[in-house]
Amino acid sequence: MAEGSVSSADVAAAFKKFAIHGDTKATGKEMNGKNFAKLCKDCRIIDGKNVTTTDVDIVFTKVKAKSARVITYEQFHQALVELAPKRFKGKSQEEALQDLYDLIGGKEPSNVGITRVAKAAAVDRLTDVSKYTGSHKERFDESGKGKGKAGREEIPDTSGYVSAYKGQGTYDDKVKEA
User: Fold this and answer.
1) Span 53-106, pLDDT tens digits
2) Which residue spans traverse the membrane (predicted)?
3) What is the phi-psi region of residue 110: left when phi exceeds 0, alpha when psi lies from -120 to 50, beta otherwise?
4) Does residue 85 sit in the same domain as residue 158?
5) 3-class secondary structure, 83
6) Smallest Cα–Cα separation from 85: which of 76, 77, 96, 75?
7) Which of 50, 84, 105, 111 has a beta carbon 3.0–4.6 Å from 6's, enabling a disulfide?
């Protein structure tokens, strides 16, 4: 095998990083088809001409066990052996495989296109509770913290007194005096 700049340990490390990407329960010993496709895309094995996403899916299906949904590192290596001559036409099997290792070695899953928190003036304005008016204002205390259910519902007064009665709560005192 041609001696290149990337060792098989670097490729194994990349395999493990991509295998656990997006799955909290993954051990890093097996990789699913989605993560294999992501590895091929992020490491530029898929070039759109010689190797397409369809080619990657076909190779994945070919190397995995019949009933399995994941591949091991050995099956991953076999998939690279299948993809190498397609990606690097005109090169020997060893050279093509080493070039593929060079593409993969030391790579990590990229997070391009992930959703970020919107920081716009409109969002700040809409979430500033000090600018609320009317009945919405009653839903928050002075610090801007929500009151929860008490701020949303009319809670009935079951004290027995009519509203706005000044002597509310004085009944017990009057009964003791008599």
Assistant:
1) 999 999 999 999 999 999 999 999 999 999 989 988 889 989 988 888 888 887
2) none
3) beta
4) no
5) helix
6) 96
7) 105
- Locate 100 and state its tokens: 């593929």
Number of folded domains in the chain? 2
Tell whether 33 and 100 lie within a shared domain. yes
Residue 76's domain spans which residues?
A: 8-104
Q: What is the dihedral of CA 37, 39, 41, 42, to 10 degrees?
A: 150
User: Could you tell me if residue 115 is inside a domain?
Assistant: no
Under DSSP, the state recorded for 170 is -
Does residue 100 sit in the same domain as residue 12?
yes
Q: Are residues 96 and 126 located together in one domain of the fold?
A: no
pLDDT tens digits for range 102-138: 888 878 887 766 666 666 777 777 777 777 777 777 7
Q: Give yes or no for a contact between 8 and 101, defined as CB atoms under 8 angstroms apart.
A: yes
- Of 19-28, 33-42, 76-85, the least confident: 19-28
Token readout for 132 is 């609320």
pTM above 0.85, yes or no: no
